[in-house]
Design goal:
It is built from 13 helices and two strands. With 262 residues, it is mostly helical. The protein starts with a helix and ends in a 5-residue tail after the last helix. The relative contact order is 0.13.
């Protein structure tokens, strides 16, 4: 079988550029100088990264404006009741102000307990296996949410899918990519306790389709097993950083699907 390396590298060279972030929620996160602000803003942007790109970016920016551009201080220095009131009126498809307030309250409690979202992730004692780390992260955030309010809505749980449910966890794997991969003008590289080789490919409909076209997977369902299969195939071409192809493949898929994205 002919190697895909030339195709992957030419796609990377063509699309892996900061100017191609125009339709990426990452656009909302660049500009924060504080690592703490970046981590919180990135988690929110990734969590809401479903739906049409322009609407995602608009709504994430609206959310950050409601926090006066200080997401870390907002999370840590306001009560759950204050969060809910200050975010009142926010809506992104399935999610309301109450969902975001609850997520920020859970993140704040985790930061108080562990020091950062990164420390929570690696506290799973899992030799930095992403699957176990994500399971631990989502379970802990949901556990804390249940101590904040007696009735946790399904819309909140939608923000925190877990590998054990079979989900590809596209948004959370994308968040990890942003945090772990080195700062190259696109990703941030602010997490130091996880190596890029451990990351799992963020799989959405664009990446799933391209993955099948390139022979990176034979699966039809964009689930966790497909994400692992595509990652394993890409690891043959870049064992140290297989997920570096994510941004370029996703842009290629988006640009071919949406001509106005180019």
């Amino acid at each position: 079988m002919k190697s895909l390396k030339p195709i992957l590298e030419s796609t990377y060279k063509l699309y892996h550029k900061p100017e191609n972030m125009r339709l990426d929620p990452l656009l909302c996160v660049h500009g924060f100088k504080s690592v703490r602000d970046t981590e919180i803003a990135a988690f929110l942007a990734a969590s809401l990264a479903y739906g049409r790109a322009e609407i995602i970016i608009r709504n994430v920016n609206t959310l950050l404006e409601k926090m006066s551009g200080k997401p870390y201080a907002f999370a840590m220095e306001t009560s759950y009741r204050e969060k809910t009131a200050l975010l009142d009126g926010f809506k992104h498809r399935f999610n309301s102000a109450a969902d975001i307030a609850l997520l920020l309250e859970a993140l704040a409690e985790c930061i108080r307990r562990y020091g950062s979202v990164e420390e929570l992730f690696v506290s799973a004692d899992n030799n930095c296996f992403v699957k176990d780390g994500l399971e631990h992260l989502t379970c802990e955030l949901k556990r804390i949410a249940r101590t904040v309010t007696h009735k946790v809505p399904d819309s909140f749980n939608y923000l925190l899918p877990s590998p054990s449910s079979g989900s590809a966890c596209k948004r959370l794997n994308m968040f990890l990519r942003w945090m772990v991969r080195k700062d190259d003008g696109i990703d941030f590289g602010i997490w130091k306790k996880i190596v890029p080789s451990a990351l799992i490919m963020p799989v959405d409909t664009h990446v799933a389709r391209i993955g099948r076209e390139l022979g990176l997977t034979r699966r039809n369902t964009a689930d966790w097993r497909m994400a692992e299969e595509i990652t394993g195939a890409l690891r043959k071409y870049d064992p140290d950083d297989p997920v570096r192809y994510d941004f370029s493949l996703c842009r290629a898929g988006m640009f071919s699907f949406r001509k106005d994205a180019a």
